[in-house]
Please model this.
Amino acid sequence: SLKVINFSYDIACQWHKKLWGRVPSLPLRLQPDPVGKTFRYFVPKFHLAAHIEACQTMFSLNWSPGVGRTDGEAPERGWANINRVATSTKEMGPGARRDTLDDHFGDWNWKKITSLGILLLWKVTEAVRAEQEHHIALSELEDSIRESELGASSLAKWREEIETWEVDHAKPNPFERRVDTMTQAAVRLELAKQDTKELEDGTAVSLHSEVSCSILISTGIDLEHAQRRLRADAGLLGQHPTDTQRTSILTRSNALLRRIDAWTTIQTLYMPSVANLRANSGCPKPNPNSGKAEDSQLLLPSEICDHVPCDRKLLEIEWSLRLAQAHDALNECRTHIRLRRQLVQFKKHHIRGQNPNTRARKTLDAVEQRLVMTHAKYSCARKALVALSNHLDRVGWERKLQPLTRSHLRPMGDFAGQTQGRTIMSWIWLTHGISNDDAESPQDALRVEWCKARARHNRWSEEVRLLLEEMRRVLAFFNWQVQWWEDRTSLRTLARLEETEGLIAYAKRQAFIRRRLSASFREKWKDVPALVATGMGIDLMGNDEDEHPCLDIPPQEDLVHDDHY
Model:
């Protein structure tokens, strides 16, 4: 009766390719019948991160419907628990080793069964809360996309596309990017290709045998970032640094200063005016008396274009690199904000004691320092874009790259001290519709993000319903076990009456334990249907009883026809 069978395996991406060619070699009783069934293949979530990007979109449990929040790692939890027995079993013979492992696995299974009452209650409470949060996040994202007519039509197209893929995975995967994202590395590659084309056409004008215009500007931006990192690391030394710390900073400063001197020598070939600016102090200097490498002025085109004429080609090159740098920095900010929030939540719920808290605080400080650095990189890139846009007549970019303040660096759902009704989500998480002049790459990235937001909400919604079914099956399992032990009382009759009575007493005791577990779980879960109905917006007073969450009847067919391996 199964319609969908899900296989979860660490290397399912490779294993499934020749599976059906090898199935005929199995015994007939082990050969699955593919008629009328759909077989889906997944890589467990912990192992998926080590796979290539194509595997992470095609074989992820996060994106396919019907699996809820399954992670595929359950078998390894039992193995991790048994690792501590290895020092004992390695000295045993085969028989003793097997008996010992059976005892430990039996203990593990029994502990798991008796803890299901608390575990499933915690899981369903967490799932209901997460479903609400992701529902709100998805609604806000869709509302922002619908602000333009093109956005509304694109959203309808994306919805049709992802629903088609969910039915047939042979269709184009909507979670895959179809346009290369703009990054600094991608822009540098494109500039290198342009240099190659100019050399082939004989139109290249290079004043240095090894350094072209694009290499000059990209190297200058790298030096600027190295200055920023050195300045931040030097600021962390404190009032009483050790000799080793001071030596490390001084060595880095000397190396950077030599790199800057070599770079400025080549810079004067392409930008002769910088020599006069440095000599006459035509541009303001951050700290003229410092003499430190991190305070040396690089005088990139964006810094001098308001003071002296600058080659338009150099301005164009820096514009492309700065635009990519700003987008990279913004994405890094989002990543650091998510990581910081996850670490704070983990520390709050799981870290106890002075030593673990100290280590957790140190990790949080490191993430915070990276966020500060990334914020500074974005601000520097945007400042350069503002200066360059006045000379290149570039407009419209400010809408997507707004000024970024510390108050904007907060995660989704953070009200920043305001109430739910007054808070405004930080602009870094929102997009304001889609306009006709939007580039193809931002629209493609937005499509992928919407697909992921929809999938996250749907997986949590499925998780709630799957947990309700799991609870129902736990209670049904206990009822079955009670009857199974009751049947054991009459299966054997021994010669001695007291031995027969002992067997009957043992069977009845086991049946009693299952009844008590069932009653205990029912008491713990008595408020779950109301919790789920309230959290998911189900009207308990409605007439359609099939929609009401219940622990006594199976759910609808869409979530019970899947099986997982």
Q: What stands out?
A: The longest helix spans residues 440-488.
